[in-house]
Amino acid sequence: MNQNPSAFDRQILHTDLDSFFTSVEVLRQPQLRGRPLLVGGSSDRGVVAAASYEARRFGVRAAMPMRLARRLCPEATVIKGDYESYNQYSNLVTEILTERAPVLEKASIDEFYVDMTGMEKFVGCLQWAKETKEAIVRETGLSVSWGLSNTKTVSKMAANENKPNGALYVRAPEVQPFLWQLNVSKLPGVGEKMAHTLRCMGVTKLGTLAQIPRRLLEKTFGKTGLFLWDRANGIDPTPVLPSHKQKSMSKEMTFQVDTMDVKMLQETLARMVEMLAYDLRKSGFCAGKVTVKIRYSDFQTYSRQVTIPVTSSDHQLTLAALKAFDALYNRRLLIRLVGVSLGKLVRGTEQLALFDAAGDVVSSRLPALYQKTDRIRDRHGEQKIGRASNFKLGI
């Protein structure tokens, strides 16, 4: 295998908080320990955001419809979820790692990468990983799994193979033997459709995938084929980024009853955009892309995106979202879910002219209006103010 020697010598740790949402709920409500737990929408139309390991034994998994999850595990306790608490615990872990780690990347609310290359000459990477895990458990009470190897992909897979409360060090010479005995579905980035396609080709193990000529995979799958070959052979030059750049913000809503009420759908999108725009301004971002997602009653899902000049203004973002929705929606079909995400995020505040392109002086008053409404939300909560047409939605 032609692998970059410098990459061969890297030491990258992946730290994963086990069943994070349900673990936090157990810390907040100790009487739930040992019981099957589901975090997500409590109605039959809801979706499972997280399942405890006790619930997973019944076949329950994240993103599963709550109705099916309850059928598989009728004794499960369903919790709506407290995302403020989840963020607080995530920040506690971030602080612990930041104080100790030379280079830290927070990949998600419950996953972290640490580049420890060079530390083996001092404290030793394996010892550092063990001591850091002990510190997280001691100071937060959360269960942690970690994987240590020479790439981000392998370290993540090592952590996944030993959950919960596990640890695995895959040294550079052991990378290929470790990878090649795993199913292709274990490779991060390989979803159900790709795994199915590979199985239909007779490829079930990463070892088989790694032996397919690279050019053949490229011819079959394009750039994705190159990605598959590299990762199956343990090649991943992706660096650990010291400050993970936020790429998007999103919200979605699953309806209690499938609907074709266009006005209600538009109002739902407008309310979600209003809340996202508030989050944008609060975080100091502007967005340059709006994406709308629709899931029909048959679970077919489609999306449409609109690129716009960077903005954090409700009215500009809402116009873009409604434009994408109108281009996307087939009005003959019932809708189960709608979602919207804001992408191409950039740091900074929007610079608005006194008059907009149409010479409308009203636009010059909007920044001051947003500042006032944001202050009300900061003090009294997001639900206390908004467009009158959106209040009845209860989003």
State the gist of this model.
With 395 residues, the protein is α+β, with helices and mostly antiparallel strands.
Give the SSE order as H and E letters: HEHEEHHEHEEHEHEHHHHHEHEEHEEH
Q: Which fold name is given in CATH as the topology of the largest domain?
A: Alpha-Beta Plaits
For the biggest β-sheet, the strand order reads: 5-6-1-7-8
Q: How much strand? A: 15-25%
C-alpha Rg, in Å?
23 Å
CATH class of the largest domain, please? Alpha Beta
CATH architecture descriptor text of the largest domain: 2-Layer Sandwich
Distance between the termini: 53 Å
Tally the helices: what do you get?
15
Q: What is the CATH superfamily label of the largest domain?
A: Reverse transcriptase/Diguanylate cyclase domain
GO molecular function: damaged DNA binding; DNA-directed DNA polymerase activity; magnesium ion binding
Domain UmuC: 12-191
Subcellular location: Cytoplasm
Site (Substrate discrimination): 21
What would you note in describing this structure?
The protein has 395 residues and is of the alpha+beta class. It has three domains: 12-16 and 86-233, Reverse transcriptase/Diguanylate cyclase domain (Alpha-Beta Plaits), CATH 3.30.70; 17-84, MutS, DNA mismatch repair protein, domain I, CATH 3.40.1170; 249-390, DNA polymerase, Y-family, little finger domain (Dna Ligase, domain 1), CATH 3.30.1490. 40% of the residues lie in helices and 21% in strands. The protein contains 15 helices and 13 strands. It has helices at residues 5-8, 20-28, 53-56, 66-72, 83-100, 125-140, 152-160, 175-180, 192-200, 206-211, 214-221, 223-232, 262-283, 314-328, 366-380, and strands at 12-17, 37-40, 48-51, 77-79, 104-108, 111-115, 144-149, 167-169, 248-259, 285-296, 301-311, 335-343, 346-347. A five-stranded mixed β-sheet has the order 5-6-1-7-8. Strands 9, 10, 11, 12 and 13 form a five-stranded antiparallel β-sheet that branches. Strand 7 (144-149), helix 7 and strand 8 (167-169) form a beta-alpha-beta unit. The N and C termini lie far apart (53 Å).
